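In response to reviewer comment 3 from the previous cycle, which asked for concrete evidence that the modeling workflow produces usable outputs, we include below a single protein chain processed end to end. The sequence was submitted unchanged, and the resulting structure tokens are shown without manual editing.
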Amino acid sequence: MIDCRIVLEYGNEYIARAVFGSVELDNKGFISGKVEDKRIVFEISSENPMSLSHTVNDLLACVKAAESSLAL
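The workflow returned the following structure tokens.
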């Protein structure tokens, strides 16, 4: 099993919650995530590196889209 932890930090908790809320439904069951103050913490596990890479890339693309919609 390969584990990955991604921590994204924002200017305040409101922005972190807005971004997290935008990507949370797409990731239910695949990625564990939570908001801690002004940070979003994602935990991802996979059986193989390619699957992990695909999941991380998809997650970061969704986060980027959410950030763009908030004009960050």
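The beta strands are 2-9, 32-36, 39-46. We consider this sufficient to address the reviewer's concern, and the full set will be provided in the supplementary archive.
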